[in-house]
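Example 5.3 — DRAM1 protein
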Amino acid sequence: MLCCMPGVAVVPALLVSWSSAAFIISYVMAVLAGHVEPLVPYISDTGTKPPESGVFGFMINISALLAAITMYIRYLLIEKQNESSHFVRSSCNMFTLCVGLMGCTGMGIVATFQELAVPSVHDIGALVAFGSGVVYITLQSIISYKSCPRWNTQFVCHIRMAISVISCIAFIPMIVFASKISMTKIDWTPGEKVKSY
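Solution (predicted structure tokens):
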């Protein structure tokens, strides 16, 4: 199986490296072009205007592909481990993979439809990406506990669950604030009325 092949562990490492580079490169380009303020802009704001929008879209789409490959490898790994241990239903593992792939699709939507060009589609993509991501990591944490102690240590399970809890907690204010604030432009000056929809 693919998950048992040597060198497959490079895919998750490549995913993290590539995604980090995507955010950093588009951020640097946007700041140098004067398109965003350097102090903590939204990720999507750094990929709204050319030329950084092209780099952002291309690199995030590659990240979505790498994430899908990583999730598929994880799915195969759990299937292989499950052959001898029977710690999780195969349908649960498949459902988890489908949720993860939905998140990757959301990432692709965010990358393709810029924040200011098609805001409603961009926002739906972000909601799908982050929402599915939170559900995916929570399901993977539960699967890790079920496979413990044979395939995971308690420490790894606790770390995964801590990341899941932090993700869930962070997702709630994202939804609340995103629903309250919808702007159709990035550049504004104090005192200027911002058109909301």
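Remark. The chain has one domain: 9-183.
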